[in-house]
Amino acid sequence: MRQAARRRDPFVVTAYSMCNGLGRSATEVTAKLRAGTRGLQECPLTVPFDTVCGVVSDPLPQLPTTLREYDARMVRLGLLGLEGVRDALDRAVVRWGRDRVGMLIGTSTGGIAETEQALDVWRNDGRFPPQYDFETQHQFFAFTHALSLVTGIRGPCYVVSTACSASAKVVASAERLLQAGLADAVLVGGVDTLCHTTIRGFHSLGVLSPTPCRPFCADRQGMNVGEGAAFLLLERTGDGVAVLLGAGESSDAHHMSAPDPEGRGAVLAMERALHQAGLAAEDVDYVNAHGTGTKRNDLAEAKAIWSIFGDAVPVVSTKGYTGHLLGAGGATEAVFVLVAIDQGWIPGNIDVKPIDPEIRAHIPHASLDRPVRVALSNSFAFGGNNVCLAFGAPS
Amino acid sequence: MIDMRVLGVGLWAPGFVNAAAWLAGEADPNAQRPKTELVGPRLRKGTSLVTRMSVEAAVQAAEQAGLDLAVTPIVFGSAYGEINIAIEQLDAMREGEGFVSPLRFKNSVHNTAPGILSIAAGNRGMATALAGGAHTFRSVLIESHCLVATGQPAVLAIVSDEPLPAPLDQRCRYEGLAVALALASDAPAGGGLGRLHNMRRGAATPERVATSRWARNPAAASLGVLDAVIRRHAGTIPITLDGDESWCIDYVLP
User: Fold this and answer.
1) Which residue of B has its CA nearest to A127?
2) For residue range A143-159, what is the model confidence (pLDDT) as tens digits?
3) How many angstroms away from the CA of A176 is the closest CA of chain B?
4) Which domain holds residue B172?
5) Which residues of A287-322 are buried (b: 16+ CB within 10 A; e: fewer)?
6) Residue B100's domain is classified under what CATH number?
7) pTM over the 0.90 mark
């Protein structure tokens, strides 16, 4: 059944960028994705179990000397990720004025990796290392504040931290900022670094795979953690690769760390995105799934997708290539959707055979060359926090 | 232009179980941990002070506003979030074989408070968790305004921070605090508890915050608004603490 007519203006994605275990730029990442290559390697942190991770290769850019107090791996990853949108962002600041450009960043870890190292020193020496500063390196807003100083953005700037949906949530928040007239352009993105907290934490839940993850596969053993950054520049008007058609948000109201097995929250998020976009299920050409590779997530999500789309739409998890980028995952997978729309191909689910027989959705095992007019990207998180973003080709 | 009606308020802080107790300034030494009756014991297990205070404050604001917790969007803001659980986890990693507790880990995310609240209330609506340093309360007001400006009838806005754990507290110590505001684009018959509008850069004088036990708690940026609303005292209110730049908002009576 066709949904209600679109009630909001679609905003334009005028630039995007990313870095993760697949590469240091959108071009590198996309080439590896197209080639079906994984970006996973042995975990560089010393942990008491086996796992693999997505790691961004060095060297990373440095902050200007005047901002050295903000130096942290998270900031350096962010600066690398930002390179691909920097020119477009500078143009937007000139075009709209820096008070009319906002910045919303998603992260799950903030700068806790710096505190992990600093606390080790404190426990041994009774004092923190001289270069460590909790306020400018750990707390959630430090990175965003540093980036606002680097870019000159003076519109609304804040962090969304809803665990693994965080950098999809920022897209929904940015849409509202634009819709409400509080900004004319918003840089949205996500950044997360590898750290002991998340890798050991997911291991404690029994959901970390010792080998490269295989979302939707019958033999999947769980997820891998990755690090990375991704950014999208949303503008009120302009020439862009795609438009943001809608964003749906929901809560499972079920459990802090396990998805509703019936996928009811996921269904609500997708239905709300379609409703806001004025789309019907048959308008959608591609769904980028949250697809972590855990038994529970993949079953619940596939059930939710099936209930809306049947087996008519290709459903792909890109986490087999990058690992789960946690707070950077939503923005990264939004960029993968933009690439599909922009370049007319859909990646395949890597190493997915044999597909879980309980999963009835259409799970392609190889890339598909076809026009993509409308695509969705799902992001789900602890707290039962769900987001679905709908992007479309520019008209 | 930010413009919202205030429909209800809530507060929970150690010693102060609601906004009236805080306004009276009489601390109850027995009130050190919220009861959080909305949340069942199994769900409540392992939750932090910041989460429990947030739930208490949100319940108070929703009750005063007559809002249904099962359908109202939740906008939670905290500068440091679940920082005590985060440091407990790092301590645990140094013990034994270096494993962490799954109970701690699932409650360690920044959106634990809205997550717990949504589960306890059966709310399948939108919930989010923000951080903006000294500008966290301002960020929560912006997000809340955008929600009501784009069609949500009302929003529960919550700010909360708990004391920093040692040794991160060496330069900054304060007591825990949670404040909640029930906000809407409009109120029945234009009523409610007043209107917040015209958010802008600029300093304003806080009346009761600067010397209080929460002076350095990022959530205390909301106390000026809370004080004005409770006392029906119209004026220009500061909404940031100790940041690089000050912001304020006007509070006008119904």
Assistant:
1) B167
2) 999 999 999 999 999 99
3) 5
4) 3-189
5) bbbbbbbbeebbbbbbbbbbbbbeeebbbbbbbbbb
6) 3.40.47.10
7) yes
